[in-house]
Write a structure and sequence with these properties.
- This protein is mainly alpha-helical and about 270 residues long.
- The chain has twelve helices and four strands; from the N terminus they run H-H-H-H-H-H-H-H-E-H-H-E-E-H-E-H.
- Strands 1-4 form a two-stranded antiparallel sheet.
- Strand 2 and strand 3 form a beta hairpin.
- The chain starts with 6 loop residues before the first helix and ends with a helix.
């Protein structure tokens, strides 16, 4: 005889089963590839209990979207936590080529950021939730999903702002006046994040010619390097917000300090 479940337990099992199926099958443009009957079978809940708790399938799927939004996050941008950053610094150790170091460090770490974001299931889930939540009929549920997505985005903005502040100080730069402090880095993070979002969402529909790297001597660097369009666009924005700090003398000792900063950041 099947165990009689409370409504709360029925809801919990169905939502957990739906989340597990989403993890197993991935998220496309919505949840149409997760039939309600599959969720019922996976949950171990009786069909009568399931349909009694959620006679409206649209409301069930809206609730699943809310649960996904509550559990999602975005990979944090961390320019100084990436292993290759130390190698970049060590191969650009001439204090007289400070700009070369800054540009190459940006290029390498932003390339890594884009790759990490593009390949992460969290990004795909977030993108699907952005596209799907506006179709939720229930206004209250739609508002709850939107609030969770705003929370996820805010966390990413805050993390990126902290990383850019750390990067700017470590390479002997400062915010371009009149920008200053946390509000300046927050604005920098919001604008670069919007650029990254646009580049990532359009990446799948752009032609190969539009996304292939180009060899450029970019942003005042004396060395040519392969630049992907998305990395180039984001680096251009970053460098429009910062400039060399006239109060900082870039020496071999500062380069050693930068390596130590990266190592400490990676270990924390």
């Amino acid at each position: 005889m099947r165990e009689r479940l409370t409504d709360r337990e029925t809801q919990r099992r169905l939502l957990e089963a739906a989340r597990a199926l989403v993890v197993e099958r991935g998220v496309s443009t919505g949840l149409e590839h997760i039939p309600f009957e599959d969720v019922i079978r996976a949950s171990g809940v009786s069909r009568s209990s399931a349909y009694r708790r959620w006679p409206n399938r649209e409301r069930f799927y809206a609730q699943v979207l809310l649960e996904l939004a509550r559990g999602t996050s975005l990979p944090h941008a961390t320019p100084l936590m990436i292993g290759p950053a130390i190698e970049i610094v060590q191969t650009h150790s001439d204090p007289h080529k400070h700009r070369d170091l800054v540009v190459e460090l940006l290029r390498g770490t932003l390339d890594m950021d884009f790759t990490t974001m593009r390949d992460s299931p969290e990004w795909r889930t977030f993108l699907t939730l952005i596209a799907s939540h506006t179709g939720i009929i229930d206004e209250q549920l739609r508002g709850q999903v939107a609030a969770e997505l705003a929370r996820v985005e805010r966390q990413a903005v805050d993390a990126r702002a902290r990383a850019y502040a750390q990067f700017t100080s470590a390479v002997g730069y400062r915010l371009v006046r009149p920008l200053s402090g946390p509000t300046g880095f927050d604005l920098m993070s919001v604008t670069t994040g919007a650029t990254m979002f646009g580049m990532l969402t359009k990446g799948d529909v752009h032609s190969a010619a539009a996304t292939k790297p180009r060899k450029l001597r970019a942003f005042g660097s004396t060395k040519a390097a392969e630049w992907h369009p998305a990395t180039y666009a984001t680096a251009a924005l970053v460098l429009s917000f910062i400039e060399p700090d006239p109060g900082v003398e870039w020496t071999a000792g500062r380069i050693d300090d930068l390596v130590e900063t990266i190592q400490a950041f990676s270990e924390s």
